[in-house]
Design brief:
5-stranded mixed β-sheet, alpha/beta, 401 residues, single chain
Length: 401
Amino acid sequence: MNYPMPPSTIPGGDQAGLRAYNRRLIIDLIRQNGPMPKAEIARATGLTAQSASVIVNALLKEGLVRKEEKVRGKVGQPSTPIALAPEGALSIGVKIGRRSLELALVDFLGEVILAREARYDVPRCAEVMARLELEACALMAEVSPERRERIIGVGVAAPGTLSGWGDVLELGPRELQDWDEVDILGTVKRLFELPTELWNDATAACAAEMMLGRAFEFSSALYIYVGTFIGGGIVLEGRLLEGTRANAGAIGSMPVPGPGGPEQLIRQASLLGLDRSLASAGIGSAGEMREKVRMAREHPAWLDWRARAARGIAHAIAASVAVIDFEGVVIDAMLDAVDVEALTEETRRAFALLDVTGTSPVEIRAGSIGFAARSLGAAILPIARSFSPDRELLVKRRVEA
């Protein structure tokens, strides 16, 4: 079996100066391809059998990997696959959103161990930050001392700005301005006393799909996440692009055709608008959006919003592929998988009606993470930063026999 090497990296060497790199290379190889015997690890990384064995033994001692049951082949000695130890490294994700606060403790494989959630109608800074402190304390109270020792960091996912969209949320012009003064990163770091990093929420959702989902097999892609507001992420040459001001992929701000002329996509394809349409129709006055949509799958309010959102997203995709030669587009949402697929299919139909002469064909796929994408992405990013051989996030790569 051939195992693809990370792009833009060199094969692992035996020099002492490359030991840290080789450790990450082996961990990433196992993460990408599943349990592997030491001999296969050596072949795939370019390390000598002795060097690979020394590093794997060290990882076993640290509890980052574990031995699986021996596998007997048709010939030769049985082999012992080496797998990631699920609780070898843990991380915390915090999502601060316009309608909810989510916290999650995840393991080395991206599985959620513990989760907390708080909802609110308006993201008023003082209230949200006070609730964050309560939920952080509650989460950590459930974590055993052994697990605490394994937590390597905290990732925070938040919109690029919470203060600038008061009009869309139908609030007064100054109601959200205190978000401009709060130090989200410093506050979270103080609460958890762990290394902390802050990411745009849609970028974090893109990371979750890249690392844990099934939709990414593209080296370049536009990722679109439909939440309370719509946002996006950009993947180029297998790497997640943050942007110089951490705002790459801000697709919600893209102008698209509207009934009265050009308007931002955020006003056509955000779940906030759907929520209001459903409320006007008397559907789901409370609860999560995915619950409301389940009740409204055949209702005109959902169908009309979906068609309008798909047209806007299709125009945004057409503009994006004219600038960057994306191989694919991945659309996910804070909805059930069947509803994400329905929105994606409607977008495919709307895109097929546009004149995109001069651009390359692009595949439009439904994402696979859904509701928890932003908190899960925030949690998995510290693990990716700590254990990837390339410190920039990498797309999962297919293994070909």
